[in-house]
């Protein structure tokens, strides 16, 4: 006997697997570590630390690879990030079964499915970056994004696709800001098993971390839109370019420092979430 119900049940059992949950905790720690390293690179950029790495995820992983235990740790992080992607894939199947419902139940199922797909893609992409860093391959995130943007701009209607992608990224940034202001991130923490001190700590971290990450996303999206308007893929310089754009703004050093501290707070939020995870 097969069908959506049995698929959802199998996904639920997979998502509840102790082994997968333990690996997903490692993935959350890895996700947090990437953000802390990005924050450190952004601070170096703001205060002239002279780092040769780009202030983005690929730069963070490259920095980790240069440490004495970097390569083995990158393999562990990559496996954990793959587990996170699988964790969210199981959520996709579980919530997809609710699409046949009606009213608010169906609306919630569609929303949860879309979010789980987006998270699975992000975690899988970071896992690929971690594998490349562990094997000494790949290039900077800004370089990859510029190549991709150049290719898309060459398509019929490519300029509109790049602009639309930029607007979507801006929307994601706005969502992160609102999520931080409205404390929506608390749904990702199992508050029932967390002590009051942990709840207060994670609330403060989320209130700072999510808006800061949202601002970075919004700048990345704005650069994509600008690349589409000017037909210049070099403008689409990813997160590293967003950091440099913030630095070039009035009071840029202070603004970039605040964004970096906020991104570090998001990384710390991921560490707490790894201790008290709640799948959503």
From TrEMBL:
The UniProt record lists the keyword Hydrolase: no
InterPro entries, A to Z: DUF1206
Keyword RNA-binding set for record: no
Occurrences of domain DUF1206 (ranges): 26-93, 115-182, 208-276
Pfam families (alphabetical): DUF1206
Source organism, top-level taxon: Bacteria
Transmembrane stretches, start-end: 23-43, 73-95, 116-134, 160-178, 214-231, 251-272
Keywords, in A-Z order: Membrane, Transmembrane, Transmembrane helix
Protein name as catalogued: DUF1206 domain-containing protein
Annotated organism of origin: Geodermatophilus dictyosporus
């Amino acid at each position: 006997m097969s069908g959506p119900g049995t698929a959802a049940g199998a996904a639920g059992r997979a998502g509840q697997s102790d082994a997968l949950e333990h690996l997903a905790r490692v993935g959350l720690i890895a996700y947090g570590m990437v953000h802390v390293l990005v924050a450190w690179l952004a601070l170096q950029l703001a205060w002239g630390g002279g780092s040769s790495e780009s202030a983005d995820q690929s730069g963070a992983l490259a920095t980790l690879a240069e440490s004495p235990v970097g390569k083995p740790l990158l393999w562990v992080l990559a496996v954990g990030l793959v587990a996170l992607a699988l964790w969210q894939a199981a959520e996709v199947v579980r919530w997809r079964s609710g699409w046949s419902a009606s009213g608010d139940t169906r609306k919630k199922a569609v929303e949860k499915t879309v979010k789980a797909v987006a998270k699975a893609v992000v975690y899988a992409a970071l896992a690929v970056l971690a594998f490349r860093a562990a094997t000494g391959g790949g290039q900077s995130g800004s370089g990859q994004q510029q190549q991709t943007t150049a290719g898309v701009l060459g398509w019929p209607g490519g300029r509109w696709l790049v602009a639309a992608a930029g607007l979507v990224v801006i929307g994601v940034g706005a969502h992160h800001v609102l999520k931080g202001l409205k404390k929506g991130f608390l749904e990702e923490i199992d508050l029932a098993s967390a002590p009051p001190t942990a709840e207060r700590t994670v609330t403060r971290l989320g209130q700072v971390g999510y808006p800061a990450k949202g601002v970075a996303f919004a700048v990345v999206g704005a650069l994509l839109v600008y690349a589409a308007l000017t037909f210049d893929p070099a403008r689409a310089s990813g997160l590293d370019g967003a950091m440099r754009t913030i630095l070039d703004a009035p009071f840029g050093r202070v603004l970039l420092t605040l964004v970096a501290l906020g991104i570090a707070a998001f990384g710390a939020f991921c560490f707490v979430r790894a201790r008290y995870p709640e799948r959503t």
